[in-house]
Amino acid sequence: MRHLRTLLAVAALGASLGTVAIAATPKSITIPMKALSGSGENGTAVLTQESDGVHIVVDLKGAPDIAQPTHIHIGTCGNINKAPEYALQNTVDGKGSSTVKGVQLGDLLKMHYAINVHKDATPKGLGVYVSCGNIKA
């Protein structure tokens, strides 16, 4: 009987710890965007869960007034997959706003993803990253 009570107590403790360990996905996160390649393009990206997907607002200081392709890539800023996972609207004059339809913020937070801004839309410019931020809570 004592053994049964101990097992029940351990099971109850395990169940309560399991409930505590589950964290809710935030509705919105702000990630720092760090300048790369001497660009001086620092700022933030705000990711907000909406009913149809994740809305992303990029705000960079020191950016040129040209169209800069912007994407979500698999990986981190230090180790990124060069092929974009999700295309975002171009960042122009440091500003960009996009909604990635059908994507959940929680899914982006479960793996390693980064937002990357490219120098410009030319073949050479696409190979130069000027700002990057790791997507994490």
Classify the helix fraction into a percent range. Answer: 10-25%
For the record, the count of structural domains works out to 1
Order of helices and strands: HEEEEEEHEHE
Total E-strand runs: 8
Going by CATH, the homologous superfamily would be: Superoxide dismutase, copper/zinc binding domain
Please write the CATH class name: Mainly Beta
If classified by CATH, what would the architecture be? Sandwich
Choose one word for the global shape: globular
| Biggest beta sheet summary | 8 strands, antiparallel
Strand order of the largest sheet: 5-4-7-8-1-2-3-6
What is the average per-residue confidence, as pLDDT, rounded to a whole number? Answer: 88
CATH T-level fold name: Immunoglobulin-like
Please tell me about this protein's structure.
This protein has 137 residues and is an alpha+beta fold. Strand 1 (28-35) and strand 2 (42-50) form a beta hairpin. The chain starts with a helix and ends with a strand. The protein is globular. The protein has an eight-stranded antiparallel β-sheet. The protein contains three helices and eight strands; from the N terminus they run αββββββαβαβ. Mean pLDDT is 88; it is low at 1-21. It has a single domain (25-135), classed as Immunoglobulin-like (Sandwich).
